[in-house]
Amino acid sequence: MKTVVITGATSGIGRATAAVFKEKGYQVYGIARRVGTDEGIKYLTADVTSFESLEAVFKQISEEVPTIDILINNAGMGISGSVENTTTEDAHYIFNVNVFGVFNAMKAVIPYMRAQGHGKIINISSVAGKLSIPFQAFYSATKAAVNKLTEAIRIEVKPFNIQVMNIMPGDVKTDFTKNRRKNVQNEEYYGTRIEKSLEVMEKDEQNGMPSSYVGKVIYRVSQKRRLPLYKTIGFKYKIFVGLSKFLPSRFVNNVVGSIYGFTKEK
Fold first, then answer.
1. Nearest-angstrom CA–CA distance, 214 and 50
2. CB atoms within 10 A of CB 52
3. Read out DSSP for 139-163?
4. Which of 29, 93, 217, 250 is deepest in the core (most CB within 10 A)?
5. Sheet containing 162-169: order of strands
6. Are 157 and 164 contacting, i.e. CB atoms less than 8 angstroms apart?
7. SS3 for 228?
8. How many Å apart are CA 138 and CA 91, to the nearest integer?
9. CATH of 3-260 among 3.20.20.140, 3.40.50.720, 3.10.450.350, 3.30.930.10
10. pLDDT tens readout for residues 8-42
11. End-to-end CA distance of the chain, in Å?
């Protein structure tokens, strides 16, 4: 029986992905801040912002199973608001969770994958990592950082038969929307632009893909003999990301601004 470890496994994409892997016969370990309730999944509590916490968890897993075949880095969070009025504490925190959480988990699992001679690491990024969204600048920045971290480490660990990739979903209907930290108070200079931008984003998310669909795509990609570097989920998002490679960056930025920026408001 193969083993998959999923961070952020108690809700949203992580939970849906865990369910798919369980159905396919995997031993599934879910890592989260709280213990989940789904049967057939072994939950372990850990703080992804702490390397020591994850190191202890992976040591435990390695003692219980012969191999750790797949790691899916899914744990993440979002904050919204203008860059100017985002607190330094919030900015540090989202980077700690979304970027250093991925770094810590990879750092903890790679020694085991190298020793066993194989492994796959799938980092859940976002289309926002390619197309930065106004008033969600720090979320976009963390996902862009994950993309670049993945590109580099993919090359570094290739000689060990460890494959690393990014999956970039578009809008997905999950509790991520309501759990996003909103910094909209005292936004004197940005008026109602933030609120309008969030209304558009939240509507897109609540009309987005079901997490069960995303989980199935993640599973299918994980079974490929050779992982691609990037996989975008959602037809229209594939088009957006694809066009962004060929169109002038200023034009792409203006298009995103026309959807989420409300720059003409006085």
1. 27
2. 11
3. HHHHHHHHHHHHHHHHHHTGGGTEE
4. 29
5. 41-45, 27-32, 3-7, 70-73, 119-124, 162-169, 230-233
6. yes
7. coil
8. 7
9. 3.40.50.720
10. 999 899 999 999 999 999 999 999 988 877 889 99
11. 60
CB atoms within 10 A of CB 107: 15
> Given its phi and psi angles, is residue 117 left (phi above 0), alpha (psi -120 to 50 degrees) or beta?
left
How many CB atoms are located within 10 Å of the residue 174 CB? 22
Q: What is the pTM of this model?
A: 0.91
Contact at 8 Å (CB) between 212 and 202?
Answer: no
Tell me which residues are annotated as active site: 139
Task: Kindly list the domain boundaries of the chain, sorted by start residue.
Answer: 3-260
Burial class (CB in 10 A: 0-12, 13-18, 19+), 142: buried
Q: Which pLDDT tens digit goes with each residue over 191-202?
A: 688 888 888 877
How many Å apart are CA 109 and CA 125, to the nearest integer?
19
Structure tokens at 78: 């979002």
How far is 77 from 34, CA to CA, in rounded Å? 15
For residues 44 and 60, the answer to whether their CB atoms sit within 8 Å is yes
Output the CA torsion sign for 169, 30, 44, 229.
Answer: negative
The b/e string for 179-217 (b: 16+ C-beta within 10 A; e otherwise) is: ebeebbeebeebeebbeebbeebeebbeebbebebbbbb
Nearest alpha-carbon partner for 258 in 148, 98, 134 = 134
**Contact status, residue 82 vs residue 190, Cβ threshold 8 Å:** yes
